[in-house]
Description:
Radius of gyration: 16 Å
Distance between the termini: 31 Å
Number of helices: 3
Number of strands: 2
Number of domains: 1
Structural class: mainly alpha
Low-confidence stretches: 93-97, 103-116
Amino acid sequence: MANPEYRWTQQTVLAWAAANVTGVGFPGERNHYSDTGNTYLGLVIENVTELNLAEAGRTLLRLDTLDMPSTYWEILEPTPTQKQNEKVLERAGQYLQGRMPPTPTRASTCTVQAAL
């Protein structure tokens, strides 16, 4: 990708997928993972709750009560403050063979304990 810092929006991901992805089979015939289903789900959640995905997820899942201070929605929330012996991996898992696939929600950003 020419600009690895480019931030994909839900709409640009869906537009890119519609223009560049071809089907791998008919429904029920075979399946193939794509992140567009998660993108559509995020839009449904935002529409139903009238909150952005981060606010809805944090509220509905009660994340603030689960002692998970490093869990956040990249782009929608600020990067959490690092604690001692903890490293926040921004955009972890977002690079595949040197290129960044379009995944706007980035809910999988993770924390790795230094002891691991």
